[in-house]
Amino acid sequence: MTPLQRYIAEEIAADHADGLLPRREALRRLGLLGLGVTAASALLAACASNDTAITDSAPSPAAPSTPPGSAAALPTAAVTFAGPGATPLQAAWAAAAQPRGGVLVVHENKGLTDHIRSVAGRFAGAGYSALAVDLLSARGGTAAFTDPAAATAELSRIPQEQFVADLRAGLDELQRRVEGKKLGATGFCFGGGLTWLLLASGPSPLAAATPFYGPFPDNGDLSASKAAVLGVYAAADARVNASRPAAEAALIRSGAPHQIFTAPDADHAFFNDTGQRYNATAATEAWRRVLDWYGTYLG
Predict the structure, then answer these.
(1) pTM of the prediction?
(2) What CA–CA distance (Å, rounded) separates 75 from 55?
């Protein structure tokens, strides 16, 4: 298994351990990844014994009733542009009226969903034109999959080098659309890991990045990146937090501006308002910090 495949498999097992997936469905999803029943059962058992999920992660009574940034969100449009290969890349595009910068939005392991489109629209509403690339474009796009678990399994089969190439093509397209403006990248879960991977892939146009609870790549080196990084984590997300020291050490070695925010009383995927781990209080604070970060380093 590649590190990203391992991450996806462990995320399925963690969802089962936290009671978000019944055993039968977890085994089905792990089977789609290529794990046999014995290996899948062992993974579920191991994750259950290491489970550190919290139960007190519900939004407080004073938490906002709408997801952060959604009140001012702008609509997105489906666009296509040239990718690194013969297949055009699909994406959601949200244009700010007077862009202060551009943000590449990197989706979770379910592909380009309505939630990710909404995040792109929220960035545009805050003044940052946003592009969310569909990393399943070469497989017909996320909409080609009626089973979200099949979309996840297909993502697990794509080489990480292809993800980096597609995201770099997205940065080129974003740079073309917001010419002369600085660029940032924000990714969530699997997409947070890809944001770290993009930062570690060598020089890029990125001036800033805000990866949310994404695993740091093995032996990741950020020395060629000049991006100012705000790493967002959740206090109860032990699985992803295990790679946080490596991320912090790489950030220190890079010499670039950086900051780590760990949301208290929150678990993995707390920003996704369509998921069962959504925490409105943590999401609101993280969104505020992201906009402050981009305000400082993008414009």
Answers:
(1) 0.93
(2) 35
